[in-house]
Structure formats: structure tokens, C-alpha cells
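To close the chapter, one final illustration. This time we ask the reader to focus less on the individual chains and more on the assembly as a whole: which components sit near each other, and how the overall shape emerges from the parts.
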Amino acid sequence: METVETVAEKRNETFLQRVRTKVDLGDVGPILGLIILIIIGSFLSPVFLTKGNLFNILTQISVLGLGAIGMTYVVIGRFFDLSVAGMLSLAAVLIVGLQPYVGTIGAIFAVILVALAVGLLNGTILQFIKGDFGASIMITFGTGTILASLALLYTGGFTLKPELDPVFSWFGNGSLFSIPAPIILLIFFSIILHVVLKYTTFGRAIYLTGANHEAARLSGIPIHRIRTITFMIVAVLVSIGGLINSSQTLNASPVAGVGFELDVIAAVAIGGTSLQGGAGNITRTLIGVLIIGVLNNVFVLIGLSNYDQMMAKGLIIIAALLLDRRNESNLIRKG
Amino acid sequence: MTIVKKLYSQKVLIILIGMVIFASISSPNFLNLQNLTFLVTQLSIFGIMALAMTYVVLNKEFDLSIGAVMAFSGIFMVKIMPHTGMILAIVLTLVLGVVIGFITGFLIAYLGLNSFVVTLCAMFFYNGLALSVSDGRPASALDPVLTYISSGTFLGIPNPIIVLIILTAGADYILRKTKFGRNIYAVGGDEQVARLTGISVKFYKIIVFVISSVAASLGGILLTGMLNSASPFVGSDAALTVISAVVIGGTSLAGGEGSIPKTIMGLFILGILDNLLGLLNVHSFYQTFILGALLVFVIGWDFYARSKKQVLAAH
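The assembled structure is written out below.
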């Protein structure tokens, strides 16, 4: 309830103060970083700012983007999912492997069912053992190892060749309104996840669960069910990513997802969603994903090897975490 | 009732004995001296790292970077060996371990970052560095001193086993009998209380990562000697295996609870499992699967038992 005094105080706020309260400073940093990267990129190469190259960047980040927006839900709920790498590999090989038996559409449905089961399994184990953040890391580390080995077992370690029917090809190489399909899928799911997170009770409940699970539990929120659903969402989005990946590369590798979890953590952390839970949103994560996409593109333009890129990524995530930490301590000081 | 309770408290030992019996029944080759020596030699490198990881986990932290540090240490040693000579190269590689551990520990203790994410980043960084320095190719290293250290024998026992035994005894002594060891338990048990008692929590947080990285460097040195070459691709499964050994032995991921003998038992359970699956010709993909399932089960059990205990304490 606003008292007369606070209303009066609000009127006396200067324009700058009002802008400052409206725009969270945590949001500005990543956007600024992205703009600087784009400027650097356009100086490095004249083709950087062409429509072709920008579509290229967006297409390349679409798989990562799908994983990262899903992970944002899990992280806001103050859990973590390391099984995404195994899930990506398994989805990539299962879709191609099941294609001859049930058709592409059938295979997609089957894989989504598998993903739902994986999310349910992760969530149920953590509910049963009353796990915390650390437990979610270790348990999903274990289930991720199982999924990765299942992908290898399914193909015997070999790469599978898909049948190129129109539906399968569309996901990687098709387009809608002359925009590549992977970008369309990323935008579509981002809007849905954004709206659900922002305007539904379910979305609010995720924030409360992450911010203070005891308070959430006492106010009647089924915290375990909420967290289990976030695990299911990320698994389904990652499996769609696996489908796009197989369709883009025209083969299904059982090691497609190795290292994927690090990219996802990087995107979420660089975007500024705190690993402490209870804060963050889809737009931030998308900015993080864009930063990684532009960064990869710039790395290629300046001719960094794959190995150097691995090193650079490790350093950049640490830097992003340090910045994130400073923001948090600023908030505490302000509060 | 008390017998059941006593047996339950020694469940890891019972599982270990059960596995030895099962292994010797199912494969006649298991219980011969050659296979057992081979088994322990195989375990020695991960064993050394598991001793260090026990310290890290007791302190309520993780270190996922040990495999990458191990690979990079091997490459580093081989690259500087022509310039410095063998002995100095080994010393410098161990110093490298100290520096790496200090950086990791500093990021975690002083800048308050999550050890899991930091060491995951470190893993990628040192993997990239090892690949970059070696151009993605194994580098061969033939040196009599190095070969003696890792493949020679002393009184008929392979040297890596002797190193493991000495370090095990030392790690156990420090943990149980010294102030340093007690403080490690205290920091892992309750950081706040430890700080109020006057223990420098940050010092211990850094030192455990130094211990872990030095152990990884030592592992890299021994492995390079055993294989006569340093490869940037080794150690990808080190963190998983070593943390599994520590946790399976019964050291709690919640910190402050566990011991060196427990880790050694966990190590042997994993080693015998691995050896047996190899003797029975089980494919390595199945081995990964079994390891993952075992990890989920053991960690799940650890957390479940603790949550039960808390409920009992509350009532």
C-alpha cells in the first residue's frame, strides 16, 4: 500500500532516477557487451553485417538457444540440469534411428515422450531424496552420463545417416516467410516461455520456489512438481534441439551433445540470470545466447582455432560470473 | 538389532568383500597375483587423485578440472623436458599444479564463485590449453628416470603402488592426527562455526584445491611415464571416476563427513567392477552406463539417508 509520502517522493524523483528504477542495471551490461561485439565484428569483416551472415549466426545458435531458454526455467527454480548434453545426443540418434520404423513425425513424438520421461525421472529422484542445488548438479551429472552411454549403445558408437524426407529436412534447412526454420522455432518457443514465465501463476510459482522454497512450500506451492515440470520443459526443448542438429548436419552423432552443458551454462550466466535462483528471465538468456553466437562468429573471423575457442569460453564464463557477483553485492548494499 | 546396525555401518566393506567373492567365482583369472598387481597399478593414478578429492569433498567443494589438469601437466612436462632436464621438469610440473590449484581456490574462496562452475570452466580451459600446446597430438617422452618412477619396481612392487601406499598413509595421518586435518572437517561441517572459532576458512578452501591440482599433476607425470607419451586426450573420465570413488566410499557430499580408508574402499569397488567387466568382455559403453547408474544410486542414497536423519532429529 502506498502512503501519501511515498507518492510525493515518487513525483519528486528526477527523470534520471526514474529511468534507473525502470531499467535494471543488470540488464544493461549484457546488452552493452553485445553491441560492442557487433561493432567489433563489423570492423573485422565487411560481410559481418549482411543479412546472410546474421541469419547464419542465428541459425547456429538456435540449438543452444532452445536449451538455454529451457535451462532458464530450471535455474530460476534454483536447480540445475547437467543431463542436457546426454539428452541432446540421445535425441539426435533416437530420431534418426526410429525414422525407418515409425516415420519422422512418429519419431519426433517418441523422442518427446522420452524427453518427458527423462525430465520426470530427474525431478522425481530429486523429490524423493529431498535434494538441494548441489544434489541436482550431481544427480543430473549421473543421469546425463547414463543418457550419453545410452546414445553410444544405441548406435554402437557409429554415426547414423538420416532419411531425408521433407519434414525432417525442414527442421534444419527449411524456412518459413523466408526465415530459416531453426530461427522460427527458437522465436516461437521463446515467446511461449516468456509469456508463461511472466503472465501465469505457474511462472510466478517458479520464481517464488527459487527465491525461497520454504516460503513457497508454506504458501501452498507444490515446489517439487514445479521443479519437475521445469526439468521436463528443458528436456523437451533440448530434444527438439537434437532434431534440428541432426537435420542441419545431415547425420546423427552419439556424441553430438558433448560440451553442450557448458555452452548452456555460459549463455544463462552471461545473460545475467543468477545461479542463486529466483531471478532472471527469457530475454536476458536470449541476449546471452546472442553474445555467444556473435562471439563464435568473431572467433572464426579472427581465426582462433577450436582449442583456443575452448579456452576463451572458459575465461569468458568466469568473467561473466564475476560481473554477476558484483551486481548481486551492489544490490545487497543498496537494499 | 545391534548386529544389524553394526553390519549396516560397515556396508561399504561388506559390498567390497561381496564383490571380491563374486569376482573370483565368476572369473578364474581374477584372483591371481598378476591380475591383482595390474588392478592396483591401474588404480594408483586415480587413487592418488581420489585421496586429494577426499579433502576437497570434506570441505564441501567439487573439483571437476582434475582430468584436464592431469592431461595438461603431462604435455607441459614433455614440452619443457628438453630444456630443463627430467628432474627439474618434474619439479616444475608439480609447481604448475600448485599455481593452478591456487588460481582455482582463489576464485572460489575470495571471489565467492560456485566451485562446480569454476572447475567446469577450468576443465575446458586446461583441456583447450593442452590441445593447443600439443597441436592435438600425443607427444612422446622417453627418459630412464621417468620410466623408472612409473614403471619400475621396488622390492618387486611396482612404484606407482608404493607411491599410492605412502600417500594414503600420509593423507590419513594428516586428516586424523593433525590440527590441519581437524580444521578441514570443521570447515566442511559448518563454515560459519569454523569461522567464528577462528579458523581461516579461506585458507583451507584454497589449500584443498592446491592439494587436488598437485595430485592431478602427479597423476599426469606418472601416466606419461607409464605410456611413454603425454596425450591431451587422457583424463576425460577422471573427475567422474574419482568423485564416484569418494562418494561410493561413503564420504558425504554435504561435507565434514568421511575418511581416507572409505575413499580407498570406494576406489577398490570401482576398480574391481571395472576389472571384472573387462575380464567378462563387457563393452566400455556398458561400463559408462553402470558407472552413471551407480553414481545416481549412491548420491541419491547419501542425500536420502541424510534427509531421514534430519527428520528424526527434528522430532
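The mean pLDDT of chain B is 84. Strands of chain B lie at 139-140, 153-154, 157-158, 229-230. With these observations in hand, you are ready for the problems at the end of the chapter.
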